[in-house]
């Protein structure tokens, strides 16, 4: 009996010793892990900006604010879709690519003088804005007298571009064609650029827009406008000036050129172009600043683009709280 008792006591002692040793090992491991964790944390802290930690968090906050500003606007569905006469309408955020309103944006329509936006791009890329351009007899004979150009006058390409864009001068566009080697060569350059931009539903037959065979879609024209904003913003800057004084290089007389775009006095207007023909009716490409958004508006085939552009802007403000 005593033997059994002593055996039990010995076994209990072994158990207690084992438990003690196990606990000591665990505490030692915990100490090592804690030291390693502290070293990792110190290493991580060293990798973060140390000059001014407040700047680091302020930058993060700024990023969050930008992200929040670009969240898709919320539509008020109590505001019904706009009713307009236009054959196609596109209203879209330039920065966030949010489609506020799309109607037949892939419908092919005559571009009329909206053509001159691509003409301006081709001139800047293939001719250069400092080149001297002579007004040819063919240019002066072209339909329309906008720009009041005369045979033999010489202008800088930049001044002639402004005349073309502000007054929608067909004479100026033809002068650029002639300088580049003629209408066929200029159209080849336009077509190549349109393909580079992915304007797959667009065709050009001249640089003026006089031919109703010049055609595009609102979606394709959005590609063109985005390229202009990113690459040649001066084109839009020129289209928003009310007018300017111009003087031929080879003449002492200067004259005032006035902007014919009815939106030029709109404080939200950031630039754009009009186009008109009997078949195309009234076209419009415009960029506006509404709240925190840069809004692209493209109207094709309207019977009153000035009134309908105001109506569509008013609708966008109400429907999306801009």
Task: Detail the topology: elements first, then pairings.
Layout: H1 2-47, H2 53-69, E1 88-93, E2 99-103, E3 109-110, H3 115-127, E4 132-134, H4 137-141, E5 154-156, H5 157-167, H6 170-179, H7 183-196, E6 215-216, H8 218-231, H9 233-239, E7 243-246, E8 255-258, E9 269-277, E10 281-290, E11 293-302, H10 305-320
Antiparallel strand pairs: 1-2, 1-11, 3-6, 4-5, 7-8, 9-10, 10-11
Notes on the structure:
With 322 residues, this protein is an alpha+beta fold. The protein has a single domain, classed as Beta-lactamase, CATH 3.40.710. It is built from ten helices and eleven strands. It has helices spanning 2-47, 53-69, 115-127, 137-141, 157-167, 170-179, 183-196, 218-231, 233-239, 305-320; strands at 88-93, 99-103, 109-110, 132-134, 154-156, 215-216, 243-246, 255-258, 269-277, 281-290, 293-302. The strands form four sheets. It has a five-stranded antiparallel beta sheet with strand order 2-1-11-10-9, sandwiched between helices. The protein has a two-stranded antiparallel ribbon with strand order 3-6. A hairpin with a 3-residue loop joins strand 9 and strand 10 (281-290). Helix 3 (115-127) packs antiparallel against helix 5, helix 3 crosses helix 7 (183-196) and helix 8 packs across helix 9 (233-239). It starts with a helix and ends with a helix.
